[in-house]
Write a structure and sequence with these properties.
Order of helices and strands: HHHEEHEEEEH
Shape: globular
Number of strands: 6
Radius of gyration: 15 Å
Distance between the termini: 22 Å
Largest sheet: 6 strands, mixed
CATH class of one domain: Alpha Beta
Strand order of the largest sheet: 2-1-6-5-4-3
Helix content: 25-40%
């Protein structure tokens, strides 16, 4: 069950900032949202650490590009200093299920772990309708 605690709201706000093209194109802004021990398993299957994801995103993001669209954003506070978010993204027709763990670090909510799994929106809808 998702709750809207202040911690969940702060993590959602930070996640949405993280998806903005102007943040993704800036090493400084991006770095402000990533925990020092950040790690990610990307939709490509690539394992990223903090330095490698900052380099990859800032080199490939167009500041003027379309923002990544989100849907089904949900969050739950797992502990005083940990929030888990799940949501879907659509980036120019590429859809992914997303899972993020945000940790409170020195008074700021920072992304500690992220995983993305690609999915086909049409296939998901077909599977859902078969179960009904």
């Amino acid at each position: 069950m998702a709750d809207r605690t202040p911690a969940v709201e702060a993590a959602i706000e930070a996640e949405l900032r993280l998806l903005a093209p102007e943040v993704r194109a800036s090493p400084e802004l991006l770095g402000q949202l990533l925990h020092p021990e950040f790690t990610e398993f990307g939709t490509s299957g690539t394992h990223w650490d903090r330095a490698s994801i900052i380099k990859a995103l800032t080199e490939s993001t167009d500041r003027e590009g379309r923002p990544i669209m989100t849907s089904r954003m949900r969050g739950v506070q797992l502990a005083e200093d940990i929030v888990h978010l799940t949501f879907d993204t659509d980036s120019n027709g590429r859809t992914s299920h997303r899972s993020s763990l945000w940790r409170l670090h020195e008074g700021e909510w920072l992304l500690w772990f992220h995983q993305g799994t690609p999915f086909c929106a049409d296939g998901q809808e077909q599977r859902s309708s078969r179960r009904q």
